[in-house]
From TrEMBL:
Signal peptide segment: 1-21
Coiled-coil ranges from the UniProt annotation: none
Region (Disordered): 47-67
Pfam family, one: WxL
Keywords, comma-separated and alphabetical: Signal
Protein name, per record: WxL domain-containing protein
Domain WxL residue range list: 84-267
Biased composition (Basic and acidic residues): 48-59
Transmembrane domains' residue ranges: none
Amino acid sequence: MKLTHKLCGAVLLAAVGVAVAVPGITKADAEADKQFAGDMDIQFTANDADKTDSSRPDLTDSDGSADTEIISGTITRPLRPVIFGIQDVTPLSFGKQAIVTDGNDRVFWAKNYEEPNGVMANNVAIKDVRNTLDHGYTLTAKITSPLTTMVKDGAKEVEQNLAGATLYYRNIGVKTNVAEAIALPGSAVKEYATVEEGTETVFVDNKKPNPGDSVYEKGQGQSYIHFGKLNATGEFASTKSVRLTIGKEKSIFEGDYKGVVTWVMAEAK
């Protein structure tokens, strides 16, 4: 009987020994077993189409229909492919005008840009799809060549220009093809501006409000800086948004005058 008790006691001690050797499963371990962190990844590369795409962006209203405030119909004039810069500037045409010398400044308004199947308000098309944290930039303009023609003087021709003439832009707005959160804000675009020879005039001043910030996302995508709207009337019409003023002291001759306005888009400093 004593032997039996001793054997049973040995078996019991062995069982207790095993129980002590196996660690207990805590509540935290049990909860951890219910979770698993799965990895994920994606790789982005530059869009090669930006290097060759000359098509115009589709502009839509809030209801998804085509925006016709600055473009109506089909415009085939191509855009210059860029990553960062100016894609197009509509040529300013003031039409055929009679010479008037009445002691007053001569004022003329630019016509809309027209093609056989479409019409467009005068504008400057810009683009910024840089791989950068700071999308700040400026857009400026100045007259780099005054309106000039050749005037016959007997057997020779003499160059005559309209130096001192100015361009006044008003009803300036912006249309873009990206989400509002990263679009060029309207507050960065001047409401009006006068362009002269020799002096750069700022049209867009898109800079981060806090110079200390390293990230500034506004100004991305393609944007039209437009002058007036096709469907506006009176003083707000696109045909009343770019004004050429020739001083009363300047002589005007018969001829086909040509000039140049140079626009510059530069990274914000």
